[in-house]
Amino acid sequence: MRTLTVAAFISLDGVIQAPGGPEEDRSDGFGFGGWIVPYADEVTGQAIQDLFSQPFELLLGRRTYDIFAGYWPHIQAGSNVIADLFNSVPKHVATHRPDSLDWHNSQALEGNLVDAIRTLKHEGDSRLLTQGSGDLVRQLLAAGLVDELRLMTFPVLLGRGKRLFDDNAQASAFTLADSINTPGGVLIARYERSGEVRTGTF
User: Fold this and answer.
1) pTM over 0.90
2) What are the domain boundaries of the chain?
3) Stretch 185-190: mean pLDDT
């Protein structure tokens, strides 16, 4: 079975909305788009390259798919490694509008979403990688389908916005596999699912 990895840029209070730019997602009046930009440096750049260094296929919610499809295909081939990867890899999309998936190598997940992703995890060798896609990620966490979390936690409180976690996530324990921090205070951590939550008494 292949690994399902959720990668996210996240604030201290759990917000993941519009990290990359002001126009990325203004829904619900969100006014802090581009909040990760001031923290970009060589360390965060290398961490992103490492994320894409192993074979992967994208697993995306519809809003994130539309944001990506409006940007990455317009980057000149050969000028950006991530663009070349994103434009070439298979893209599995949670959508009710399958006929409008125009980005190369895109396909809609059919039928019940959780069942479709369970089936997808048993097909192929490349890991499944989800970015953004908050609604989708919350469904994956509720179904216990996430094997790995790769979180870049930024030292900001945003107060409002779409959040990565909600009250429906399946209780699960994760192990910290590795972590580093950047000069600007970004914590880059990789967590691997390790089983049930354990409890005790002091």
Assistant:
1) yes
2) 53-147
3) 98
